[in-house]
Amino acid sequence: MADNEAQELQNRTREDEEHILPNNNLLLVFFGLMMTSFLVALDLNIVATALPSIVAELGEGQNYSWVANAYLISTAALCPAYGKLSDVFGRKRILYPSIMIFLIGSALCGAARTMNWLILSRALQGVGGGGILQLVQTVISDIVPLEVRGTYGSLVPAIWAVAGLIGPLLGGALSDHLSWRWCFWINLPTGGLAGLVLFFSLNLNPHQGKSFQEHVREFDFLGVFFLIGGVLSLMMGLSQSQDGWNKPATIGPLVSGVVALILAVLVEGRTTRSPIIPPRLFKTRTTAIILITELFHSFAYYCAMFYLPLYFQILRASATKSGLLVLPYSVLASVTAAGGAIITSKLGDYRLVTWSCYVCSAIGYGLMSMLNERSSSAAQILFLTIAGLGIGGGFVSPMIGLQAAMPQKEVSTSYATFMLFRYLGSTIGLSIGQTVWTGVVQGRLRKMPGLNLDISSAALANSARHIQSIEVLAFRDCQVLRAYTKGISDIWLLLTPILCLGLIWYLALFMKKYSLKRRIVRAED
Fold it and tell me: Got a GO cellular component term for this one (predicted)?
C-alpha cells in the first residue's frame, strides 16, 4: 500500500512539472533531424556489409572488429559528457560541431590507405556520430511533449528502417561494383544538407547562459575524468579480448577501467558540483532496470548486425546479396522500433512493448542458433524475421520509460547515460562475439588432419569471404564450412539466455509505470 501511494505521489509530481515548448516548424525541423540521424544509421548499415571487402583490400583481418569497435569506443567514451555539455553550452553548440566532425571522419575513412588509418578515422567519426545521436534525441525531448514523444520519436527508428533497407544493399553494391570507399564518402552531401536545414530552421528555448567562471565552478571535472577514462579503458580491454582474455593487453585495461568506473560512481554520488550522471538513475528501481537491460539488448543487436553478413558471405553470398539477406532482421527491427514507440504513446505505458521485445527476440535468437551451412532460405528468412521483430521493441520504449521516470531538467543527462549503456553493451557484444567465433572455428579446424589452412585470428577473418575457394572438396563442402558456420551459430546460442535474463530482470523486479503526461507551456514568439 505504501509503495502504491508513493508511486501515485511521484506521478502527480511529474504531471505537474512544467515543460516549455519552443515554437518550431516541426515538419522542417524533423526533416533536418531525420536527415542527420540518417547519416549515422546509413553508416552503420553500409559498413557492416562492406567490412569483408575492406579487409580484402587493406588486409590485417585480425583487426576486423576494430573497424566497428573504434567507432563505438570513441562514441561511448564521450557519451557521458555530451548530455552535460549540451546543458552547459546549449544544444546547437554541440550538435553542429558533431555533424562537422562526423563528415570530416567520413572523408578520412574513404581516403584510408591502411587499416590503422581507417580505424583512427572511424574513431573520429564516432566522436561526431555519438554527438549526433545524443543531440537529436535531446532536441526531440526539448521540442515535443513526453505524452506524444513516442509518436514523433518513432520517426527515428523509421529512418533506421529506411537505412536498414537500403544500407546493406548500397554497401554491397558499392563494394562489389565501385569501391567500398564510397560507403563513407556518400555521407558528405547528406550531412551538408542536414546541417544547413537545422541551422536555418531549429528554434530552442533561450539558453540560460552563465559566465565561464560559473561553468568551471559547477562542472564535475573529476567525475567526467573517471567516467571517460574508465569507459575508454574498459572498452579497449574488451576490444583486445580477441587475442585472449589472459593477455596483459586485455587484463590491464579491463582492471583499470573497472577501478576508474567505481571511482566515478563514488565521485558522482558525493560531488557538490553538477553531476555528469544523475545519481537518482541508479536509486530509482525502474531506471536502474532499464539501464541494465539495455546492456543485454545492445549486446544482442550489434552482434547480429555484424555477424549475420559474415554468415551469408561464408555461404558464398556476395556483399550485395548478403546485405539483401540480412534485411528481414535489420528492417523489421527498425519497423518494430517505430511501431513500438507509437504503441507506447497510445497506451501511455512502455512496459508491454519492452516485455514483448525480450520474449520474441529470445525465441528468434534461439531459432537462429540452429542455422548452419545446410539451412534452407525459408528457415533463414523466418528465423531472422522473428529475431528482428523482437529486438526492435527495445530501442525506443525503454527510453521513453527512462524519461518518464526522470524530471525534464535531467532528460539530456539521463539519455546520455542510456546511450552509454547501449554502447558498452555493443562493444561487449562485438568483443565476445569475435572471441566465440574465433575460438570455435580454431578449435574445430585444429582437429582436421592434413588441412593446409592458416587458422590465426587474422587469417580466419581474411579467409571467411573466400572459404568456398578451398581446394579440398571434402573439407570445403563439409567440415571447414561447418566450422565457420558453427562459430556464428554459437554466438546466437550464447545470446539466447542473455535475452531471457533481460526478460527475467524486468519481470522479477516489477518495473513500475510512470505517467507520460506533463503540463505544457508554449513559448512566446
Answer: plasma membrane
